[in-house]
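Readers of this paper often ask what the protein records in our data store actually look like. Such a record has a labelled line for the sequence and another for the backbone structure tokens. Nothing more is needed to write down the fold, since each code stands for a local backbone conformation. The remainder of this section carries one protein's record, kept here as part of the documentation.
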Amino acid sequence: MSQQPNIIFIMADDHAARAISCYGAGINETPNIDRLAQEGIRFNHCYVTNSICTPSRAAILTGTYNHVNCVFTLQTPINNRMPNVAKHLRTGNYQTAVIGKWHLGEGKEHEPSGFDFWSVLPGQGEYFDPYMIEMSKTIEVPGYATDIITEKSLNWLKTRNHEKPFFLMCLHKAPHREWEPHPKNRGLYQEDIAVPETFDDDYKNRARAAKEAKMRIKDDMKYSDLGLVQPEGGSEVGERTRIGSTNRKIPNPSDVSALRLIDKETGEVFTFQNREELSHFKYQRYLKRYLRTIHSIDESVGNILDYLDDTGLAENTLVIYTSDQGFFLGEHGWYDKRFMYEESFQMPFLARYPAEIPLGSVCENVCCNVDFAPTFLDFAGLSIPSYMQGKSLRPLLRGNAPENWSEIAYHRYWMHRDPDHNAYSHYGIRNQRYKLIYWYNEGYELPGTNHGGEDREWELFDCEKDPLELFNCYAQPEYQAIVRTMKVELEKKMMEIGDEPEHL
């Protein structure tokens, strides 16, 4: 067992692949995260099975889809008596730890299990002076969340049992909403950032779900999202974010002449000549705050990689960097995630393991977050239990994809019309070229959902000809053979994983 590699799994929250410079979008620089791509491999088609925080984390931990692990929505916590990858690794001689954002529930039935040490944020956690639950004891930790999680992770690495291999999950809160940057980084990104081509999307030629979603930068961001003072008052200062909330959205009036927005830190007052100027302000303010939080994440990754290099651990340590899903950075006018559209669906995935992964590799094969747990066990030399539904990525990491590797990614979002974002429930598959989505639009009384009943719809996108996903070609005559093929593949996948189709 002495040759078992160490495993460090670093995951940010809501980190879009476009906000990592090695993915080529050009909106920011992440030199430390890029090191993993330069010294290892970058995956271009890694996808989330349910684009929302809690269900994605459950899929990663258990190697199962949400209809199996029963973590469907943000309000369905994990049952910690279930088997998970940390339990298998600990039984297999590993010392295990999880530090940072857990987001799978609190209390004896939901707290981390299978870990020798754990220190996690309750719920979403706070950016500054966060409370953390550490081995069932709640403590307040002064400082900035990203720095705290990094320091705790490094301290555990230094004080662990050095006779055993280790498995560390370093789980960052950033860059989750409300995107509060470290004070030292508040001055970054002074120049304007290019607005996405689809920012003014009118949602024509798509399913109704796109138009109905309340995730628009122009209309749905609240004052605290942009670091602004919320004025006193009622509906005149903005729509409530949800029933019963005191938080209000920043208005988007046709006449902006009376609008005054105030910076929460400096007191600077912003005025606007027209709605276009206001929309531009909101986009720039949002994206710069988001990227500033990522700057701290990149520094954290650098600190961990430097520690591995300095201690001689790098050669025998598998380091993975990912996010719990993708995120919209103004594409289609949106922030947030939830949808199977590419920006939300795609996860960044970077890995370094000098003993096996060729330098500067790029993988174009399709994979999913349910594949992570089997991958950890494969590298550890442990058997992959039959209940896990993912497949080990080890052959892909080596650059030797099996001929029979499945190029199908399955996604199912269950949280129909949640009160904050009004995103519709759906499922579908993506292969190397096409994406098929079925909007079944039912909540089935799951926690955090609303009743359904909206018209059900299909979408098919040709991701090669239409990478921006602007044209639903489901009904186009020239795509009918593709529709039939994709439906067969969808049904095969649902049968394989045991999920129940709603379209039959």
Observations:
- Residues 100 and 249 are 29 Å apart (CA to CA).
- The two ends are 49 Å apart (CA to CA).
- The chain has a mean pLDDT of 97.
- Residues 413-497 form a domain with the Arylsulfatase, C-terminal domain fold (CATH 3.30.1120.10).
